[in-house]
Amino acid sequence: MNIRDIITKARSENRTALDEFAGKQLLAAYGIRVPKSAVIDGVDEAAAAFAQLTPPLALKIMSPDILHKSDAGGVKVNLQSAAEAADAIRQMMNVPALRDARIDGFLLEEMAPAGQEVVIGAVRDPQFGPLVMVGLGGIFVEVLADVAFRICPITRLDAREMLAELKGAAILKGARGRKPASHDAIVDVLLKIGGEGGLLMRHTDDFREADINPLIVSESGAVAVDARFVLS
Amino acid sequence: MSTQAIIERYAPLFMPKTVAVVGASTKGTALPNVFIRRIREFGFEGAIYPIHPSATEIDGLPAYRTLADTPQPVDYAYIAVSAAQIPAMLSAAAGRVRYAQVISSGFGEVDSGKELQQQLAAAARAGGMRLLGPNCLGIYTPRGKVTFTEISPREVGTVGVVSQSGGLGTDIVRRGMSRGVKFSGLVTVGNCADLGANDMLEFYFADPQTRVIGLYIETAQDGRRLFEILRAGEARKPVVMLKGGRTQQGLAAAVSHTGSLAGDDRAWVALSRQTGCILVDTLDEFIDALLAFQTLAPRTQRPTRRVVLFGNGGGASVLATDYFARLGLDVTPFSQPVVDALAALELPPGTSITNPVDCPVGTLQQEDGRVAEKILDVIYARAEPEALVMHLNLAAFVGRSKPEVLDNLVQAALRVQAHYPGKAHFVLVLRSDDEPELVARRREFRAKAAALGIAVYDELSNAGHALAALQAHERFVQSRRGA
Known about the structure:
Chain A is α+β, with helices and mostly antiparallel strands.
């Protein structure tokens, strides 16, 4: 399905946001790496999906009713076999909030190699149009609000300056014995999202907000592990 | 549009040959009567056409019934009558008015006037004119000898300002004037029913007379266009922006003030980072920064960082060192060779010969102030700062030293400046309290310094903010254009 169809379909279903799989298709269409994945309806399809993917896998519930999948118990990670995946699905179905939700399916996907968690976001400003944001994952964004915004379209230099502006910028360089995270990989994703001809410039009227949270960044690259696009 | 086309388009506004005034009364007491008096006093040489439904003469000038009845077409119409009657007046102008500025309020800034504002904009289009306002105070354009303010510099300067608020526009002219700012123009745009801050910004970028641009803005009428104009401008001319409504509380005040939604602060910070416009927080910082850009030529190959403080007042210079450091300006002690060279001057005890250089009045009045030349020569030659701030506490001079000492100190600084052209930005701080003799001395001295092209600040902190603005501009240009 092409991007336009994905958005049209979500609208026709009166959804407020793209589902995670659709969001990742959108990212992939703009050249952003996403984990290899499969969508299954239930336990019966777990084995077939496992055969195509390389464990360990993550399992995520897909539901328009569940906003925070992890908090709701809708995410299981480090699954090594189809049997584990089937168990995980059964466990989720024992959680009342999940059992009662509308369920589109389950996303099984390969797990990104370890790296620094980064958040890339977007909002539509009533006066300036699309803004792109970057921050470091976890407490940096959520508690310290250590983020940088720019008006789209951004240039490569803008993207570099956004990273330099973060108070936690040193962490990307590999502070406290951690491996450094590739600046170029983050800059590249920022440009694909917020640059000239990027996702936000092409879809100015489609989305009110968007989040890639987390983007997992290693020394060599970046993978968008979760994505959320809120429709306008 | 080409630069030339923009300049030509706005020539009738900034250099009108004919001015119509709507709302002047035969009694001569209404605001438009005051406007007529002001522009005559200011030396306006073109024709003034009072518009009045019945009078044949106002303030000694022949009056005309409508905007379409004047002998010559109208370049600029100043309109201050009750809101409801204005749209019909504009639509009847029959293409004979180029620019109309509606001073009156009662339009989009109040709920009941929103529809009337739309009618006003439509009427301006129908009448074939461009509209400024409503809900503003006027235009100050020294090249056209038109002003809405009671006092304003006659000299045509290089600072072009657009203000969404009329009252603040008046403050900017008056306070700017008292601090030595000279304007290429100041336009109050109010509710921006037609032309707005973006259009004036575009003009100032094109206008060769304008070298520095100041914006007081509460709401971007068209944020995209503002972003695009500023980005295309590439900080070719420094832009200083005072943004009202950056906090939630300020936002509430702004909504009631201009009648539209103000944007989120983070977008404004982004705008500043991406386009190099300098965001300031207060009217003082705004004027201080404009003065710095008017006076000092940005040095983008060597952005301002290292600053030398030179003057009297040990505590004041220690505090300033801290304050400057917070602003990203470096007042670091001199290296040993510089200290040795200063020591060789054998200055009196009590003189601190590291940075900040603290000289008691006893030192500064040596050779009637000419000693400063020797000290500064060593600093410029050996310490090579990017900026030198000379601060003088007037209370310590007046009544204790000869009047010419202050003059000599500044002359000494200027001679050193001339000897090392382009080496360091030089600014002067004249510290004082409100004691009348000191205030008078400062005023006189500030005027002298301004005439010599020196930026004068009231306090070290003001000078710090001004230099920080200069630094931000220099760094931006360096990062974008490789200087």
